[in-house]
Specification:
Strand content: 15-25%
Number of strands: 5
Oligomer: single chain
Number of helices: 5
Distance between the termini: 55 Å
Structural class: alpha/beta
Strand order of the largest sheet: 2-1-3-4-5
Largest sheet: 5 strands, mixed
Helix content: 25-40%
Low-confidence stretches: none
Length: 158
């Protein structure tokens, strides 16, 4: 198993935790020099915070662990293509590389809908590796939304 696959599987396990909490199953982990700096899964519902995407949670934890908002040399692994908000934070954090699983055809900001991380566009270039374990990441999302659509509403006792 490659290093990238190892860390993406870690992100997928975090996405599972998010699904168990009733959140959209997206996981992210920030790694530098072979060690986890920060990790997270989607938490906007639990935290009542629209910015609590998996990537943002992982970036915040990594910045605290590094005692620096600049995370130079780090790689962020995410199970879903980052949105514009997360891509912007990735640039501000000076993440060196982003590896993601499934494409997000509605909000993706790494080439699907937007290309915030396009080289030469901003003051910091981020290397992007798309599609790692994309089938597994997409299957997790599809299963989550399928279960939500087919959930039978509870009977009204009143």
């Amino acid at each position: 198993m490659s290093t990238d696959e190892h860390w993406m599987r870690h992100a997928l396990a975090l996405a599972d935790k998010g699904a168990a909490a009733g959140e959209v199953p997206v996981g992210a982990v920030v790694v530098r020099n072979g060690a986890v700096l920060g990790e997270g899964y989607n938490r906007p519902i639990v935290e009542h915070d629209p910015s609590a995407h998996a990537e943002m949670v992982a970036l915040r934890a990594a910045a605290l662990a590094a005692a620096n908002y600049r995370l130079t040399g780090a790689t962020l692994y995410a199970t879903l293509e980052p949105c514009p908000m997360c891509a912007g934070a990735i640039v501000h954090a000076r993440i060196r590389r982003v590896v993601f699983g499934a494409r997000d055809e509605k909000w993706g900001a790494c080439g699907s809908v937007f290309d915030v991380l396009e080289p030469g566009r901003l003051n910091h270039d981020v290397e992007v590796t798309p599609g790692l374990l994309a089938t597994e990441a997409a299957a997790l999302l599809k299963a989550f939304f399928r279960a939500r659509r087919t959930r039978v509403p509870e009977a009204d006792d009143g």
